[in-house]
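Just wondering, can you check both lines?
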Amino acid sequence: MKFRVERDALADAVAWTAKSLPSRPSVPVLAGVLLRASEGRLTISGFDYEVSSQVGLDVHADEDGTALVSGRLLAEITRALPAKPVDVSTDGSRVEIVCGSARFTLPTMPVEDYPTLPDMPPSVGTVDSAAFASAVSQVAVAAGRDDTLPILTGVRLELEGSTLTMVATDRYRLAVRELQWRPEAPDTSLTALVPARTLAETARSLGSLGGEVTLALSGSGTGEGLVGFAGGGRRTTSRLLDGDLPQVKSLFPESYSAEARVNVSELTAVVKRVALVAERNTPVRLSFSDGTVVIEAGGTEEARASEAMECEYKGEEMTIAFNPTFLTDGLGALNNPVAVLSFNDPFKPAVLSGATTEGEPDTSYRYLLMPIRLGN
């Protein structure tokens, strides 16, 4: 194998592929990336039996061939190379990388021990990459991080006609995002529970490339339980999580007795300041009255903080408490400058959404928060 490639293109491709590699692989070869040069095209692949990543780029190839090298080491090297063309070649059990006067030699691993990447599942439609990346980032923030409850670490994709709905929850909060996509069949009706971490990294990467993302999903009878995403010469597949989320969308109240409208950036800053005195798992309290909300944290026997800010409020005066991290996560997920916080009483779920330019709640994204009960 021998080829020449632009440094930035190689570094980006290797970094993207290496990102999904396991830090402690069960088999040493799973820490590698597979380089395959053929007919002027370089394919870089990674696979850990759960997630596969593959990217292709054009190169000037003198000799076709294949090599398997440490993915993380190759990523660090290519990122550090000077901004010059890179020559890569194999010499027996070594891969040599030359860029300007910089020269690196890496040992290879046995290609024959590397697993075969899964085929891409059947395509079910496309979605704008930027909109997809934004929607995933809004929902994935609410996914669980406790691997002992694997179902809650996923994002549920619901594909119904031209509407794509994403749902995630960790039992204490719930995020739902709806967006339009272009299904290949108008009567499409599919669901999939995708690992949130994989979905977030893939959407962020493909979203930066522009264009469209192709969604692929194994249907009944294919037997693999795979989801795939492709765009900009890159593709990722992931095994679906077993099981499904409970029917959590029914938690959203049908009506609300109180509603507050606040500036997102201002409220975020105030909550973070006040929460400096909040100990672990200690809530911040929001006391709403006409035209004002007072944010407080701390108790009588410890450090305390409070700060008031303007808000538009409709309803009876009320104090409600939230986990400060969960609250700022929800505020950070909004794409609108003004947040709408809707609730009924201090003990029932509150719903956070953005305000449209007309001032109405933007129901395409809803973030439900469970309040924390305050002591007497």
User: Anything to note?
Assistant: The first helix runs from residue 7 to 18.
